[in-house]
Automatic annotation (TrEMBL):
<feature type="binding site">
    <location>
        <position position="77"/>
    </location>
    <ligand>
        <name>ATP</name>
    </ligand>
</feature>
<dbReference type="Pfam" id="PF17864">
    <property type="entry name" value="AAA_lid_4"/>
</dbReference>
<dbReference type="InterPro" id="IPR041445">
    <property type="entry name" value="AAA_lid_4"/>
</dbReference>
<feature type="binding site">
    <location>
        <position position="228"/>
    </location>
    <ligand>
        <name>ATP</name>
    </ligand>
</feature>
<protein>
    <recommendedName>
        <fullName>Holliday junction branch migration complex subunit RuvB</fullName>
        <ecNumber>3.6.4.-</ecNumber>
    </recommendedName>
</protein>
<feature type="binding site">
    <location>
        <position position="76"/>
    </location>
    <ligand>
        <name>Mg(2+)</name>
    </ligand>
</feature>
<dbReference type="GO" id="GO:0006310">
    <property type="term" value="P:DNA recombination"/>
</dbReference>
<feature type="binding site">
    <location>
        <position position="72"/>
    </location>
    <ligand>
        <name>ATP</name>
    </ligand>
</feature>
<feature type="region of interest" description="Small ATPAse domain (RuvB-S)">
    <location>
        <begin position="192"/>
        <end position="262"/>
    </location>
</feature>
<dbReference type="InterPro" id="IPR008823">
    <property type="entry name" value="RuvB_wg_C"/>
</dbReference>
<feature type="binding site">
    <location>
        <begin position="138"/>
        <end position="140"/>
    </location>
    <ligand>
        <name>ATP</name>
    </ligand>
</feature>
<feature type="binding site">
    <location>
        <position position="320"/>
    </location>
    <ligand>
        <name>DNA</name>
    </ligand>
</feature>
<keyword id="KW-0347">Helicase</keyword>
<feature type="binding site">
    <location>
        <position position="31"/>
    </location>
    <ligand>
        <name>ATP</name>
    </ligand>
</feature>
<dbReference type="GO" id="GO:0016787">
    <property type="term" value="F:hydrolase activity"/>
</dbReference>
<dbReference type="GO" id="GO:0005524">
    <property type="term" value="F:ATP binding"/>
</dbReference>
<comment type="subunit">
    <text>Homohexamer. Forms an RuvA(8)-RuvB(12)-Holliday junction (HJ) complex. HJ DNA is sandwiched between 2 RuvA tetramers; dsDNA enters through RuvA and exits via RuvB. An RuvB hexamer assembles on each DNA strand where it exits the tetramer. Each RuvB hexamer is contacted by two RuvA subunits (via domain III) on 2 adjacent RuvB subunits; this complex drives branch migration. In the full resolvosome a probable DNA-RuvA(4)-RuvB(12)-RuvC(2) complex forms which resolves the HJ.</text>
</comment>
Amino acid sequence: MSWDEQTDGVEERLVGAAADREDLAVEAALRPKDFGEFIGQTRVREQLDLVLRAARARGATADHVLLSGAPGLGKTTLSLIIAAEMGAPIRITSGPAIQHAGDLAAILSSLAEGEVLFLDEIHRMSRPAEEMLYMAMEDFRVDVIVGKGPGATAIPLELPPFTLVGATTRAGLLPPPLRDRFGFTGHMEFYEPTELERVVHRSAGLLAVEVTADGAAEIAGRSRGTPRIANRLLRRVRDYAQVRADGVVTREAARRALAVYEVDERGLDRLDRSVLHALLNLFGGGPVGLSTLSVAVGEERETVEEVAEPFLVREGLLARTPRGRVATPAAWRHLGLTPPAREGGTGQDGLFGM
């Protein structure tokens, strides 16, 4: 089952980090144009700025760049900034779109000198294309195979120097030979609430939305550390404020709007809470197997594991153990429930004091 099939029906989640068509359209208007406008990711931004300044001073093409991190943190935006800082055009494609070595060869052979090639979800590229990319990154050359069988001939094709910017949400799936060919690797961290407040204020200004400081703070606190989600919540709260209030995004308007959209104060939505409710109310907090938990919430196993669990684990509400999924004390508190007493103590698998 492909990732697209796994997430079918869940990508429309208001707090999902995957971009939908509306997100892509709005993000194009909201994207920062340079490092000065880019909010957050201070360490990666500073390091990249040094790499690009040094390359410009040498009159050279910038080193290849690998950006890793969860969806919605700004990897595409940084790739566009890299191209702008180097004064170079950018070509955008993705790993799933390159299923044959010929697909990659066609792209590489059409690049201009100094051009930036942004390859999103690079870990999903086919193996033959991946092996061709090794030589292209290191030697700026590819071997085009002409013919088949014993009579096949490899024709070397020289490439102009270019900068590859690879983006991945799963850096661990990249083979070491590919990772080693990147001159700079940056990991995108989740944003702090104060950074997301700045993102909300900036986006509100660009969207001509009046937002108060406490309204921005309320949205930022429910955005799961992700600017894309913050911008999406801002648009939905804006809609609510325009229809049911005076058009100003205040804390009260944000709270009422996000209650309508079932996003709670920690950013959990219906799917997240369904998983926790099943784990706590049906299985006493666990441990319970993933397949059993998935059946209990009426979702595919992959949906629970890939869509709901990562945020619940990051928030300290759920733990993955060898025996199964276990709720933490924070999960019981968040849902206003009392954990059951356990023999020999109050805990489960060491999570409650054992």
